[in-house]
Amino acid sequence: MIQKNKKRINLLEQQHILPREELSALLDGQCEELSAYLFPKADRIRRENYGTDIYVRGLIEFTNYCRNDCYYCGIRRSNRSAQRYRLTEEEILGCCEEGYQLGFRTFVLQGGEDPIYAPERMEALVRTIKSHFPDCAITLSVGEHGKETYQRWFDAGAERYLLRHETADDSHYRILHPPELSLQHRKQCLWDLKEIGYQVGCGFMVGSPGQTSAQLTEDLLFIHELQPEMVGIGPFIPQKDTPFGKETAGTLEKTLFLLGIIRLMLPQVLLPATTALGTIHPRGRELGIQAGANVCMPNLSPVAVREKYALYDNKICTGDEAAQCRNCLAARMQSIGYQVVVSRGDHKSRTSTPQ
Ligand code: SAH
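# S-adenosyl-L-homocysteine complex -> structure
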Protein backbone atom coordinates (compact mmCIF):
# COMPACT_ATOMS: atom_id res chain seq x y z
CA MET A 1 0.00 0.00 0.00
CA ILE A 2 2.72 2.44 1.02
CA GLN A 3 4.74 1.50 -2.06
CA LYS A 4 1.74 2.16 -4.28
CA ASN A 5 1.26 5.56 -2.72
CA LYS A 6 4.92 6.46 -3.11
CA LYS A 7 4.52 5.65 -6.80
CA ARG A 8 1.48 7.90 -6.91
CA ILE A 9 3.53 10.70 -5.39
CA ASN A 10 6.25 10.18 -8.03
CA LEU A 11 3.65 10.29 -10.77
CA LEU A 12 2.06 13.39 -9.34
CA GLU A 13 5.47 15.04 -9.28
CA GLN A 14 6.00 14.25 -12.96
CA GLN A 15 2.52 14.92 -14.31
CA HIS A 16 1.13 17.41 -11.76
CA ILE A 17 -2.18 15.57 -11.76
CA LEU A 18 -3.54 12.06 -11.18
CA PRO A 19 -6.81 10.44 -12.17
CA ARG A 20 -9.60 10.97 -9.60
CA GLU A 21 -9.39 7.46 -8.07
CA GLU A 22 -5.61 7.65 -7.75
CA LEU A 23 -5.75 11.03 -6.01
CA SER A 24 -8.40 9.75 -3.67
CA ALA A 25 -6.36 6.64 -2.83
CA LEU A 26 -3.34 8.85 -2.15
CA LEU A 27 -5.35 11.01 0.27
CA ASP A 28 -6.66 7.92 2.03
CA GLY A 29 -3.12 6.61 2.37
CA GLN A 30 -1.88 9.58 4.39
CA CYS A 31 0.38 8.39 7.22
CA GLU A 32 3.64 9.37 8.85
CA GLU A 33 5.83 7.33 6.51
CA LEU A 34 4.17 8.72 3.40
CA SER A 35 4.47 12.27 4.69
CA ALA A 36 8.16 11.66 5.35
CA TYR A 37 8.44 10.67 1.69
CA LEU A 38 6.39 13.60 0.38
CA PHE A 39 7.70 16.60 2.35
CA PRO A 40 11.36 16.54 1.20
CA LYS A 41 10.14 16.35 -2.40
CA ALA A 42 7.78 19.28 -1.91
CA ASP A 43 10.54 21.21 -0.17
CA ARG A 44 12.94 20.55 -3.05
CA ILE A 45 10.40 21.68 -5.65
CA ARG A 46 9.75 24.86 -3.67
CA ARG A 47 13.51 25.50 -3.43
CA GLU A 48 13.91 25.01 -7.19
CA ASN A 49 11.36 27.75 -7.76
CA TYR A 50 11.71 30.15 -4.85
CA GLY A 51 14.86 29.09 -2.99
CA THR A 52 14.60 29.45 0.76
CA ASP A 53 12.91 32.86 0.52
CA ILE A 54 9.74 33.31 2.52
CA TYR A 55 7.39 35.99 1.24
CA VAL A 56 5.39 37.89 3.81
CA ARG A 57 2.04 39.60 3.35
CA GLY A 58 0.78 42.18 5.79
CA LEU A 59 -2.76 41.17 6.63
CA ILE A 60 -5.13 44.03 7.42
CA GLU A 61 -8.47 42.77 8.69
CA PHE A 62 -10.33 45.98 8.03
CA THR A 63 -13.94 45.04 8.76
CA ASN A 64 -15.74 42.17 10.46
CA TYR A 65 -19.20 43.22 9.32
CA CYS A 66 -20.53 40.58 6.94
CA ARG A 67 -23.77 40.12 5.06
CA ASN A 68 -23.19 36.36 4.79
CA ASP A 69 -23.98 33.59 7.22
CA CYS A 70 -21.46 30.80 6.54
CA TYR A 71 -21.95 28.17 9.25
CA TYR A 72 -18.25 27.85 10.09
CA CYS A 73 -17.30 31.50 10.34
CA GLY A 74 -17.13 33.53 13.54
CA ILE A 75 -17.99 36.81 11.79
CA ARG A 76 -21.19 35.43 10.17
CA ARG A 77 -24.05 37.90 10.34
CA SER A 78 -26.08 35.84 12.83
CA ASN A 79 -23.32 35.84 15.43
CA ARG A 80 -24.69 38.31 17.96
CA SER A 81 -21.66 37.83 20.20
CA ALA A 82 -19.27 39.19 17.59
CA GLN A 83 -18.11 42.70 18.44
CA ARG A 84 -18.31 44.48 15.12
CA TYR A 85 -15.74 47.02 13.95
CA ARG A 86 -14.57 48.63 10.77
CA LEU A 87 -11.33 50.51 10.28
CA THR A 88 -11.35 53.95 8.70
CA GLU A 89 -9.27 54.71 5.61
CA GLU A 90 -6.82 56.60 7.84
CA GLU A 91 -6.42 53.63 10.13
CA ILE A 92 -5.85 51.31 7.17
CA LEU A 93 -3.21 53.66 5.76
CA GLY A 94 -1.60 53.75 9.18
CA CYS A 95 -1.34 49.94 9.12
CA CYS A 96 0.26 50.10 5.67
CA GLU A 97 2.73 52.75 6.83
CA GLU A 98 3.78 50.66 9.79
CA GLY A 99 3.95 47.57 7.58
CA TYR A 100 6.08 49.32 5.00
CA GLN A 101 8.59 50.33 7.68
CA LEU A 102 8.73 46.69 8.76
CA GLY A 103 9.56 45.53 5.23
CA PHE A 104 6.16 44.44 3.93
CA ARG A 105 5.65 45.00 0.20
CA THR A 106 2.25 43.30 -0.05
CA PHE A 107 -0.86 44.40 1.82
CA VAL A 108 -3.81 42.06 2.04
CA LEU A 109 -7.10 43.79 2.76
CA GLN A 110 -9.39 41.16 4.16
CA GLY A 111 -12.86 41.50 5.54
CA GLY A 112 -16.41 40.30 5.64
CA GLU A 113 -18.72 41.33 2.82
CA ASP A 114 -19.42 44.70 4.37
CA PRO A 115 -21.95 46.76 2.38
CA ILE A 116 -20.58 49.99 3.87
CA TYR A 117 -17.34 49.27 2.03
CA ALA A 118 -19.19 49.62 -1.27
CA PRO A 119 -17.40 49.18 -4.63
CA GLU A 120 -16.68 52.92 -5.01
CA ARG A 121 -15.28 53.19 -1.52
CA MET A 122 -13.03 50.14 -1.99
CA GLU A 123 -11.89 51.53 -5.31
CA ALA A 124 -10.93 54.84 -3.72
CA LEU A 125 -9.14 52.99 -0.92
CA VAL A 126 -7.12 50.91 -3.38
CA ARG A 127 -6.14 54.04 -5.32
CA THR A 128 -5.05 55.83 -2.17
CA ILE A 129 -2.93 52.93 -0.93
CA LYS A 130 -1.41 52.48 -4.37
CA SER A 131 -0.50 56.17 -4.63
CA HIS A 132 1.18 56.11 -1.21
CA PHE A 133 2.97 52.79 -1.76
CA PRO A 134 3.54 52.40 -5.51
CA ASP A 135 6.12 49.64 -5.01
CA CYS A 136 3.69 47.44 -3.07
CA ALA A 137 1.16 44.88 -4.24
CA ILE A 138 -2.41 45.09 -3.01
CA THR A 139 -4.34 41.89 -2.45
CA LEU A 140 -8.07 41.99 -1.85
CA SER A 141 -10.03 39.35 0.03
CA VAL A 142 -13.53 40.66 0.37
CA GLY A 143 -15.70 37.89 -1.01
CA GLU A 144 -18.06 37.56 -3.95
CA HIS A 145 -18.78 40.49 -6.24
CA GLY A 146 -19.72 41.10 -9.87
CA LYS A 147 -17.13 41.06 -12.62
CA GLU A 148 -17.47 44.83 -13.20
CA THR A 149 -16.67 45.47 -9.58
CA TYR A 150 -13.61 43.22 -9.70
CA GLN A 151 -12.53 44.99 -12.90
CA ARG A 152 -12.91 48.35 -11.26
CA TRP A 153 -10.68 47.39 -8.33
CA PHE A 154 -8.15 45.87 -10.71
CA ASP A 155 -8.04 49.10 -12.71
CA ALA A 156 -7.52 51.00 -9.47
CA GLY A 157 -4.39 48.96 -8.76
CA ALA A 158 -5.36 45.76 -6.93
CA GLU A 159 -3.39 42.94 -8.51
CA ARG A 160 -4.26 39.90 -6.45
CA TYR A 161 -7.44 38.42 -5.04
CA LEU A 162 -7.98 35.71 -2.46
CA LEU A 163 -11.28 33.88 -2.57
CA ARG A 164 -11.19 30.38 -1.16
CA HIS A 165 -13.66 28.17 -2.96
CA GLU A 166 -14.15 26.43 0.45
CA THR A 167 -15.12 23.08 -1.14
CA ALA A 168 -15.47 22.03 -4.76
CA ASP A 169 -18.22 19.52 -4.03
CA ASP A 170 -21.79 20.78 -4.29
CA SER A 171 -23.29 18.65 -1.55
CA HIS A 172 -20.48 19.59 0.81
CA TYR A 173 -20.90 23.26 -0.08
CA ARG A 174 -24.51 22.92 1.05
CA ILE A 175 -23.42 21.56 4.44
CA LEU A 176 -21.14 24.55 5.02
CA HIS A 177 -23.30 27.38 3.68
CA PRO A 178 -26.86 28.72 3.84
CA PRO A 179 -29.07 28.22 0.76
CA GLU A 180 -28.55 31.73 -0.64
CA LEU A 181 -24.88 31.01 -1.36
CA SER A 182 -23.80 28.76 -4.20
CA LEU A 183 -20.63 27.00 -5.25
CA GLN A 184 -21.39 27.82 -8.83
CA HIS A 185 -21.33 31.55 -8.12
CA ARG A 186 -18.17 31.31 -6.03
CA LYS A 187 -16.40 29.42 -8.82
CA GLN A 188 -17.67 31.94 -11.37
CA CYS A 189 -16.09 34.71 -9.32
CA LEU A 190 -12.75 32.90 -9.44
CA TRP A 191 -12.95 32.49 -13.22
CA ASP A 192 -13.90 36.17 -13.59
CA LEU A 193 -10.95 37.24 -11.45
CA LYS A 194 -8.60 35.12 -13.53
CA GLU A 195 -9.93 36.49 -16.77
CA ILE A 196 -9.45 40.06 -15.59
CA GLY A 197 -5.80 39.30 -14.91
CA TYR A 198 -5.56 39.09 -11.13
CA GLN A 199 -3.15 36.70 -9.47
CA VAL A 200 -5.84 34.55 -7.94
CA GLY A 201 -5.94 32.45 -4.81
CA CYS A 202 -8.49 29.74 -4.11
CA GLY A 203 -8.44 27.25 -1.26
CA PHE A 204 -10.32 25.41 1.43
CA MET A 205 -10.38 24.39 5.07
CA VAL A 206 -8.98 20.99 5.96
CA GLY A 207 -11.26 18.89 8.14
CA SER A 208 -14.36 21.05 7.82
CA PRO A 209 -17.54 19.29 8.99
CA GLY A 210 -18.66 16.54 6.62
CA GLN A 211 -15.47 16.59 4.53
CA THR A 212 -14.48 13.26 2.91
CA SER A 213 -11.46 12.23 0.83
CA ALA A 214 -13.72 12.14 -2.20
CA GLN A 215 -14.51 15.81 -1.63
CA LEU A 216 -10.89 16.73 -1.02
CA THR A 217 -10.15 15.01 -4.32
CA GLU A 218 -12.63 17.34 -6.01
CA ASP A 219 -10.83 20.27 -4.38
CA LEU A 220 -7.53 19.14 -5.86
CA LEU A 221 -9.06 18.57 -9.29
CA PHE A 222 -10.64 22.03 -9.22
CA ILE A 223 -7.34 23.60 -8.20
CA HIS A 224 -5.65 21.87 -11.10
CA GLU A 225 -8.32 23.11 -13.48
CA LEU A 226 -8.20 26.71 -12.24
CA GLN A 227 -4.39 26.89 -12.06
CA PRO A 228 -4.41 29.62 -9.41
CA GLU A 229 -1.30 31.60 -8.52
CA MET A 230 -2.01 31.10 -4.80
CA VAL A 231 -3.71 28.42 -2.73
CA GLY A 232 -4.81 29.11 0.84
CA ILE A 233 -5.47 26.09 2.99
CA GLY A 234 -5.62 25.73 6.74
CA PRO A 235 -7.32 23.51 9.27
CA PHE A 236 -10.95 24.15 10.11
CA ILE A 237 -11.10 25.36 13.74
CA PRO A 238 -14.45 25.64 15.51
CA GLN A 239 -15.66 29.04 16.69
CA LYS A 240 -17.88 28.61 19.74
CA ASP A 241 -20.69 30.95 18.68
CA THR A 242 -21.29 29.31 15.30
CA PRO A 243 -23.43 26.26 14.39
CA PHE A 244 -20.15 24.31 14.08
CA GLY A 245 -18.92 25.40 17.51
CA LYS A 246 -18.79 21.85 18.84
CA GLU A 247 -17.28 20.17 15.78
CA THR A 248 -13.72 18.87 15.83
CA ALA A 249 -10.85 20.79 14.25
CA GLY A 250 -8.91 19.64 11.19
CA THR A 251 -5.55 18.03 11.90
CA LEU A 252 -2.01 19.24 11.50
CA GLU A 253 -0.99 16.04 9.71
CA LYS A 254 -3.68 16.22 7.05
CA THR A 255 -3.09 19.93 6.41
CA LEU A 256 0.64 19.39 5.98
CA PHE A 257 0.03 16.43 3.69
CA LEU A 258 -2.24 18.52 1.49
CA LEU A 259 0.29 21.38 1.39
CA GLY A 260 2.87 18.91 0.09
CA ILE A 261 0.52 17.53 -2.54
CA ILE A 262 -0.45 21.01 -3.74
CA ARG A 263 3.24 21.94 -4.11
CA LEU A 264 3.68 18.89 -6.37
CA MET A 265 0.61 19.78 -8.41
CA LEU A 266 1.53 23.46 -8.85
CA PRO A 267 5.32 23.74 -8.49
CA GLN A 268 5.31 27.55 -8.69
CA VAL A 269 2.28 28.23 -6.53
CA LEU A 270 2.42 30.80 -3.73
CA LEU A 271 1.43 28.72 -0.74
CA PRO A 272 0.91 30.22 2.71
CA ALA A 273 1.58 28.48 5.99
CA THR A 274 -1.55 29.97 7.51
CA THR A 275 -2.35 31.47 10.88
CA ALA A 276 -4.85 28.65 11.43
CA LEU A 277 -2.01 26.16 11.03
CA GLY A 278 -0.01 28.12 13.59
CA THR A 279 -3.04 28.05 15.88
CA ILE A 280 -3.46 24.26 16.05
CA HIS A 281 0.24 23.60 16.63
CA PRO A 282 2.93 25.85 18.16
CA ARG A 283 5.27 25.12 15.25
CA GLY A 284 2.53 24.76 12.65
CA ARG A 285 3.85 27.45 10.32
CA GLU A 286 7.41 26.14 10.41
CA LEU A 287 6.14 22.64 9.65
CA GLY A 288 4.02 24.08 6.85
CA ILE A 289 7.09 25.65 5.25
CA GLN A 290 8.95 22.35 5.52
CA ALA A 291 6.02 20.64 3.80
CA GLY A 292 6.21 22.97 0.78
CA ALA A 293 4.70 26.33 1.75
CA ASN A 294 6.57 29.59 1.00
CA VAL A 295 4.41 32.44 2.28
CA CYS A 296 3.38 33.78 5.70
CA MET A 297 0.75 36.38 6.40
CA PRO A 298 1.37 38.11 9.71
CA ASN A 299 -1.20 40.47 11.05
CA LEU A 300 -0.92 44.23 10.60
CA SER A 301 -4.34 45.07 12.07
CA PRO A 302 -4.33 47.39 15.09
CA VAL A 303 -4.04 45.34 18.29
CA ALA A 304 -7.25 46.92 19.60
CA VAL A 305 -9.37 45.12 16.97
CA ARG A 306 -7.46 41.88 16.51
CA GLU A 307 -9.47 39.76 18.90
CA LYS A 308 -12.64 40.88 17.19
CA TYR A 309 -11.69 39.34 13.86
CA ALA A 310 -12.40 35.95 15.38
CA LEU A 311 -13.09 33.63 12.46
CA TYR A 312 -12.25 30.76 14.84
CA ASP A 313 -11.30 30.33 18.52
CA ASN A 314 -7.84 30.77 20.08
CA LYS A 315 -6.31 32.57 17.09
CA ILE A 316 -2.61 33.28 17.69
CA CYS A 317 -0.86 36.68 17.82
CA THR A 318 -3.97 38.67 18.76
CA GLY A 319 -2.06 40.52 21.50
CA ASP A 320 1.13 41.27 19.59
CA GLU A 321 2.18 44.46 17.87
CA ALA A 322 2.95 44.18 14.16
CA ALA A 323 6.67 44.57 14.80
CA GLN A 324 6.65 41.74 17.32
CA CYS A 325 4.88 39.46 14.83
CA ARG A 326 7.32 40.35 12.09
CA ASN A 327 10.36 39.68 14.27
CA CYS A 328 8.96 36.51 15.79
CA LEU A 329 8.24 35.17 12.32
CA ALA A 330 11.68 36.08 11.01
CA ALA A 331 13.26 34.22 13.93
CA ARG A 332 11.03 31.20 13.39
CA MET A 333 11.95 31.03 9.70
CA GLN A 334 15.61 31.47 10.43
CA SER A 335 15.50 28.64 12.96
CA ILE A 336 14.61 26.23 10.13
CA GLY A 337 16.98 27.65 7.54
CA TYR A 338 14.74 30.04 5.59
CA GLN A 339 14.62 33.82 5.45
CA VAL A 340 11.86 36.38 5.31
CA VAL A 341 12.57 38.71 2.39
CA VAL A 342 11.60 42.29 1.58
CA SER A 343 9.81 41.71 -1.72
CA ARG A 344 6.42 41.91 -3.38
CA GLY A 345 6.74 38.17 -3.80
CA ASP A 346 4.90 37.80 -7.08
CA HIS A 347 4.15 34.45 -8.69
CA LYS A 348 7.11 33.27 -10.75
CA SER A 349 5.17 33.51 -14.01
CA ARG A 350 4.80 37.26 -13.37
CA THR A 351 8.43 37.99 -12.63
CA SER A 352 10.60 35.97 -15.00
CA THR A 353 10.76 37.26 -18.54
CA PRO A 354 9.69 34.62 -21.03
CA GLN A 355 12.48 33.44 -23.33
N1 SAH B 1 -15.21 37.37 3.24
C1 SAH B 1 -13.99 36.90 2.62
C2 SAH B 1 -12.96 36.51 3.64
C3 SAH B 1 -13.36 35.33 4.47
S1 SAH B 1 -12.36 34.96 5.86
C4 SAH B 1 -14.32 35.78 1.67
O1 SAH B 1 -15.48 35.41 1.57
O2 SAH B 1 -13.43 35.29 1.00
C5 SAH B 1 -11.06 34.05 5.12
C6 SAH B 1 -11.12 32.56 5.22
O3 SAH B 1 -11.11 32.12 6.56
C7 SAH B 1 -12.37 31.90 4.67
O4 SAH B 1 -12.31 31.80 3.28
C8 SAH B 1 -12.38 30.54 5.36
O5 SAH B 1 -11.82 29.51 4.55
C9 SAH B 1 -11.50 30.78 6.60
N2 SAH B 1 -12.29 30.49 7.82
C10 SAH B 1 -13.48 30.99 8.18
N3 SAH B 1 -13.93 30.41 9.32
C11 SAH B 1 -12.97 29.51 9.68
C12 SAH B 1 -12.85 28.57 10.74
N4 SAH B 1 -13.80 28.42 11.65
N5 SAH B 1 -11.72 27.80 10.78
C13 SAH B 1 -10.74 27.95 9.87
N6 SAH B 1 -10.81 28.80 8.84
C14 SAH B 1 -11.92 29.58 8.73
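# post-check
The pocket of S-adenosyl-L-homocysteine is lined by residues 72-73, 110, 112-113, 141-143, 163-164, 166, 205, 234, 236-237, 239, 276, 311-312 (CB under 6 Å).
Strands lie at 53-56, 58-63, 106-111, 137-141, 160-162, 199-206, 230-235, 295-296, 339-341.
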